Every structure is written in structure tokens, then in C-alpha cells.
């Protein structure tokens, strides 16, 4: 999909917005002061303010009387302000023009994108409109290249990080990242691509849609109307002599079959699936129609992940763990493999407690980090997959071989003062 419009925000204007909108309350004040200005100025403040606050999405939600504006930061929505209907109508027309959407269509969903040139740094914005009870709801997804991180920043535990680095450098096989929408799968895959890209290898992707543009990588986007879906696109990519293939998501048997075949014939294939845990990857591929005889030799590694909020470094308070917390942590981490070294869980343990300050928008949390579960294939597991085991049997064997669950990985991060018990229990409900 081509980028159809651009908003340019100069360095001076950006600095001005940054200084005046350093938290949500100040952004609200700045927006409310600007409501009498022209639409372009309001949109500039809205976009630059949200980007400066590290928001991932901007929501315009029509209500009965007015339109609510909210922004998503670290996975949670925050109310900013309410706009008059007339102001929102002007904003929506401007957004539609920028995004290449039809102005006269309001009774069906539309998708588009545009670019914000922020102090000469391009940031792509994905626009989605949807008819709702009181008018068109609009969501702007901010695709900030600053979100692209190195593999060291993902939050992978040291003992697994060495394994991870070896696996992503293998010349063939499949690495699957699993988790629900918004669990950081794309971030992990792009971090892998950033690490392995070099002039000596050819990397081709098929995505829906392309989220970030990467140098030295051939990126393609599905276009079902023209017959270019994941399955057909992947077949075409294999004929392009790639070394590494990224498949945005495996959704059907044809894509699974072609991806596994590519992994078995000398390509490293990176992809995602929607499963609850790492061992579920094998069961999901079988449910799509694939046979264990193809899955077992092709799969190198399955990574299940979620995102949890990190404690705010500015206002965090470290307090002695209560008897209940000590009991809970001991119980939850009692099955950890002996090789995993963790801080002592006793009366001297101090845990991070969220407080709240302007830096973290009074939530007590700032930024997010991954919690992971690695299902590593080896000759024993490969032979076991061929027997079509149940998911519980697969988990049992993986646990016996030292697999640490996502919940355990999260609680290890709690012991290290990175996040809180509440975040981990909320994210990994069992």
C-alpha cells in the first residue's frame, strides 16, 4: 500500500510541543488551548504529543455529545480530552485525505497510512476508520522506528540468550514466535532481522502489512485481491533464492506446508502463530493439517511471549516482601531447573512497588519488557514429536529438559526488581 500523504513538523515546533506536553495532563491543556486553531495545527499537536509520550496508538471515539480522544501507552489507554463534533469532522477529513481514504464513505471500514516527518525523521502512521453508533471511530497506529530494538533489549534471560543467538544464526529450520495480538511478536522478529542482516545473505519478508521498513531487506506485503496471500507469496519468495524468509503469520495449511518445506530445504524461516504457550506450536501446526513427520525435523525453536510493564525507575519503592509474597514466590518457582540462579527468596528480599510520578503518568510503570518461554527442539524431542504426543506430554518432556515457563520467567524478573508480582499474575493467568 503506497504512502499517500505527509505531515511535516519542524524541529523548533517539535521542541515546543515536547516542552509543553511532557505528560498527559499537559498534552490535554495544550490541545484544549489549540482548539480554535486550524485543523492542521491541532493534528500536529496530537501526533507530536503522542509520539513524544511514547504512545503506540491514538483513538478518536465518537460519543453521544462529543468525541473522546485517548492514547495508548505501555499497553494501557489514557483519556486525554474531548473534542467538539465539528472539530473532529474537520480532523477526520484531514486524516482521510492524508491516508488516501474515500471522504464520502462513512458506512464501512477503511484502512490507509501516511507519514509524519518529525524533525526530518519519518514516522509512519496507520489509519483505521470504523462506522460506530455516533459516527466514524478512528485509530492511528504509530509505527515509530525508535520501537525497533536490538535483541539484547528484548528481555531474554542470560542462560537462554546464548541459545537464542545460536538458533538465529542457523542456516535452516524454523523459528516460531507465538502469543496473542500485542504480545511483541513483530518486535522480536524485527530484532532478529536487524541482528542477522548482512550483505552476504538475502532476506525476504511477506507481511500483513509491512510495519517498519528495514534496510538491505526485500519486504513484500500481502494483497489478497490480487491473489498475493501468505501461501502464494511464500511460494513465489522461495523461487527468489532467499537465505532467510520472514512469514508474518501462519494462518492456514498451505502456508504451513510451504513454510515447513522451505525450512527443510536450506532456508531459515521466521514466523508467528497464535498459541497460548511454546509447546502449543506443534499442536497448532498439526491442527492446520501438517504431519509430525514434517514438523519434527523443520522446527528449531518455538518462543512464546507476552509483554509486561516495567517498574518506573524514577518513583519505584523497594519494600521487604511480605510472608504471603515469599510463600507465593517459593511455591511458583519451586520447579525451576537447578542451573537457573535466582536471588534468595527470604525475609531479606525486597520487591519493587509502583508509586506514580509525572514520568510514568502516575501509573508506577514505565516501558515494557518481554517474558518468554523457549521450546527448543533436539533429537529427543524430535523423535517424541513423531509419536503425535498431547500438549501436556510435550510440556512434560520440555520441562524435564529444563524449559522455564513464561510465568516463571516473569517472576524471575520480579526478583530482579524489573516488574511486579501483580503484572505477572495478570499477564499469565493460569
Describe the overall structure.
The structure is a single chain. A hairpin with a 2-residue loop joins strand 6 and strand 7. Helix 7 (230-238) packs parallel to helix 8 (253-264), helix 10 runs antiparallel to helix 12 (379-385) and helix 14 (406-415) packs antiparallel against helix 15. This protein has helices spanning 11-20, 24-34, 39-52, 85-99, 158-168, 185-196, 230-238, 253-264, 280-287, 292-298, 323-332, 379-385, 391-400, 406-415, 421-427, and strands at 6-9, 57-62, 67-73, 76-83, 110-118, 121-132, 135-143, 173-178, 203-207, 218-221, 244-247, 268-273, 299-311, 317-320, 350-353, 365-376. The strands form three sheets. A seven-stranded mixed β-sheet has the order 1-5-6-7-2-3-4. A seven-stranded mixed β-sheet has the order 10-9-11-12-8-13-16, sandwiched between helices. It has a two-stranded antiparallel sheet with strand order 14-15. It is built from 15 helices and 16 strands. The protein folds into two domains: 6-144, Beta-Lactamase, CATH 3.30.450.90; 148-428, Rossmann fold (3-Layer(aba) Sandwich). 39% of the residues are buried. It has 430 residues and is α/β, with parallel strands linked by helices. 36% of the residues lie in helices and 26% in strands.
